[in-house]
Amino acid sequence: MISLGVGDPDLPTPPHIVEAMREAVRDPATHRYPSYVGSPDFRRAVAAFYARRFGVELDPDTQVMALIGSKEGIGHIAFAYLDPGDEALVPDPGYPVYGVSTRLAGGTPVPLRMPAERGFLPDLASARVSERTKVLWLNFPSNPTAAVADLGVFEEAVAFCREHDLLLLHDAAYSEITFDGYVAPSVLQVPGAAEVAVEFGSASKFYNMTGWRIGWAVGSAEALRALAVIKTNLDSGQFTAIQRAAIAALEGPPEHLDRLRETYRRRRDLVVGTLNRLGWSLEPPRGSCYVWVPVPDGETSAGFADRLLDAAGIFVAPGSGYGEGGEGYVRISLTVPDDRLAEAMDRLARLLG
After folding, report:
1. What is the pTM assigned to this prediction?
2. Among 317, 338, 326, residue whose Cα is nearest residue 6
């Protein structure tokens, strides 16, 4: 069986990051409790990354927080901002954790349509906002749809959140995995966004560090203070040695990201090219490490996924797992070695050709 269902990079963490970790582990100073909000050096490194990459100036003392992987912060922010009965606007289709964490906090996830005819961008005009709505989630480049947004999308979202007194939460886990000249913006590039928005980032996909569990939250100082109340009572921060390794990642040579993008671009072109030869009409996605594929006419997401698994030994993620708006699609991950991906495409062609 070839799994194309999980977005877990197959490539190793770059050697300079591993070496930084090795050195940090040898330092007894890293063996004690870490800072709840992240070491000053780590927070300064994240702030410097934002200044270089996005031209965004952040106060590392109040606008940057270390996370035990961005998923941890995405889950905990619901407990910081939602009371039982409160509502969160969550992308549909979208990453399931936004809705699940809302439910765990006693809130109600309200689907925010991301229609195919809009390029899977948010339809804010149709958003169901009530007096209990507290937050709006976005995620670009998107998991699962691979949709990308320009700064105008974020400008509209920031204005929408100001109008309705919402906290804008943006998951930017794939911002550095982009292709064909597209460069992903940060929501914090919108003037004044840091007053109403928090952006979540991670070393997982950029530096092949999914197992290391290190990420960050940046933006609204007020929101980060609320998140800190939860974190200081539920965890004790990330191992300082891992934070030092993440500093090496953020400050390391840019050639790593160039090679990573080229690898995913090559794999993307193989998948899109194979499917288009079989009758699809896909545009190559310009971001993330996924390809979002409509299922053949007359089939459901789960039914098509089951057929690929049973008849070809290929596992893909049914789109229905990402919300009602994901029905009729499957998600193919590009995080498998080239030879296994080529074998999967050969099997697909034999089955459907």
Report:
1. 0.98
2. 317
> Going by C-beta distance under 8 Å and a sequence separation of 6 or more, which residues neighbour residue 66?
35, 37, 38, 39, 42, 43, 46, 214, 215, 216, 237, 238, 243
Instruction: Report the C-alpha gap between 78 and 88 in whole angstroms.
Output: 9
Shared domain for 103 and 38, answered yes or no, is: yes
10 Å CB burial of residue 191 (0-12, 13-18, 19+) is: exposed
CATH number at residue 134: 3.40.640.10
One domain for residues 97 and 180: yes
Instruction: Give the pLDDT confidence of 106-131 residue by residue, as tens digits.
Output: 999 999 999 999 999 999 999 999 99
Question: Residue 38: its pLDDT value, please?
Answer: 98
Question: Which amino acid, residue 131?
Answer: E
Q: What is the largest CA-CA distance in the chain?
A: 61
User: Same structural domain for residues 209 and 313?
Assistant: no
Angle between helices 338-352 and 255-277 (to 10 degrees): 10
Bridge partner list, 92:
113
The label of the residue with tokens 């509209």 reads 156
- Residue-wise pLDDT for 238-260, tens only, equals 999 999 999 999 999 999 999 99
Cβ neighbors of 53 (< 8 A, separation 6 or more) are 186
User: Taking the mean position of all CA atoms in its chain, how far away is CA 129?
Assistant: 24
Express each pLDDT in 38-54 by its tens digit: 999 999 999 999 999 99
Host domain of residue 319: 2-11+255-352
How many domains does one find in the chain? 2
Same domain, 160 and 142: yes
How far is the C-alpha of 336 from the C-alpha of 140, rounded, in Å? 22
Report how far residue 152's alpha carbon sits from residue 249's, in angstroms, rounded to the nearest whole number.
30
Alpha-helix residue ranges (DSSP H) falling in 55-120: 70-81, 97-104
Query: Is 39 in the same domain as 177?
Result: yes
271 shares its domain with 245: no
